[in-house]
Write a structure and sequence with these properties.
about 50% helix, alpha/beta, binds nicotinamide-adenine-dinucleotide, Rossmann fold
Length: about 280
């Protein structure tokens, strides 16, 4: 929990686009100083310039969250620039997939490396800095896919988001048990209007593109149309994150009805063996 946000220092990964950029903008509007970290240099530099020109106290560092050394450099940079970090948002994430046996191991590794290990690297590098503050907080971006599986072609993504939920719940319990000043939240949104369906723009060259897969193309076209129609604006999600940081709320659920229904279906599955079956990403 951070009861008084103004004047505190935030670090946001995946901060050059979508939810991460909206988080940074909300934090800046509340008088925070922000370090944006992203793998996309051009977009990062242009957003840092735009925000600085508008008067924000903001820095940017090109960072690959899948690389522990790169995330450690980010932590060192934030401390060198601002002397402290109070709020860490492990938000960078990617998505790619296909039917199970058509997913190359390279794709599994890329999605787990960015989504799960990216979050883990952030927690490992920043926790000692956060624990030195009177109040501090970690927000890990998961997804509704951390609460409900079954989305066709989304195996790596779902697995990575379940893993984020697991590691976040475990750290939350450990920190609460020793009355650490560091709170933990998990952000689990459904559809949000961002560049996520273009995640492969950032894939390493050894990860095959999923573009030629017909099943995948059809699913992604439907998903994109649905996000365009009913997706939340990233700024609305950012407001919920701010509120959770101020009030020390673990689950941040921008789509609460979908989240509760997903968990009810899991409970029914445990009790009756009635499986929820296929679920379309975003449902
Ligand atoms: N958009 C949605 O509907 C939705 C729903 C649930 C969860 N999420 C999650 O929200 C988070 C943010 O995604 P978004 O929707 O804003 O998408 P986005 O593509 O607009 O933003 C993701 C950012 O992460 C950056 N990134 C990718 N790989 C990176 C790496 N290795 N190191 C550092 N930065 C990297 C990208 O360059 C990009 O700026 C992700 O974790 C995603 O899984 C999104």
């Amino acid at each position: 929990m951070i009861s008084d946000i103004t004047g505190r220092i935030a670090v946001v990964t995946g901060g050059a686009s979508g939810i991460g950029l909206a988080l940074a903008e909300s934090f800046i509007a509340q008088g925070m100083s922000v370090v944006l970290a992203d793998i996309e240099r051009a977009r990062l530099e242009s957003e840092v310039t735009r925000l600085s020109d508008d008067g924000a106290d903001v820095r940017g560092l090109v960072t690959d969250v899948s690389d522990a050394a790169s995330v450690q450099r980010l932590a060192d940079f934030a401390v060198a620039e601002f002397g402290a970090v109070h709020l860490l948002c492990n938000n960078a994430g990617v998505e790619s997939g296909a039917a199970f046996l058509d997913i190359p191991l390279e794709t599994w590794r890329w999605v787990m490396d960015v989504n799960f290990f990216g979050v883990l690297h952030g927690m490992r590098s920043f926790l000692p800095i956060l624990e030195d503050q009177e109040q501090a907080h970690i927000v890990n971006t998961a997804s509704l896919s951390a609460l409900a599986a079954g989305a066709p072609t989304f195996g790596p993504y779902v697995s990575s988001k379940f893993a984020i939920l697991g590691v976040s719940e475990n750290l939350h319990a450990e920190l609460a048990a020793r009355q650490s000043p560091v709170g933990v939240s998990v952000l689990a949104p459904g559809p949000v209007k961002t560049q996520m369906s273009l995640s492969e723009r950032n894939k390493p060259s050894d990860v095959p593109s999923s573009a030629g897969n017909a099943q995948r193309a059809e699913l992604m076209a439907k998903l994109n149309a649905m996000v365009d129609e009913v997706g939340l604006e990233p700024s609305a999600v950012a407001d919920m994150v701010l509120d959770a940081v101020r009030t020390d709320r673990f689950f941040i659920l921008p789509h609460p009805d979908k989240a509760f229904e997903a968990v009810r279906k899991r409970l029914r599955w445990m009790e009756t063996n009635e499986s929820p079956g296929v679920r379309h990403a975003g449902d």
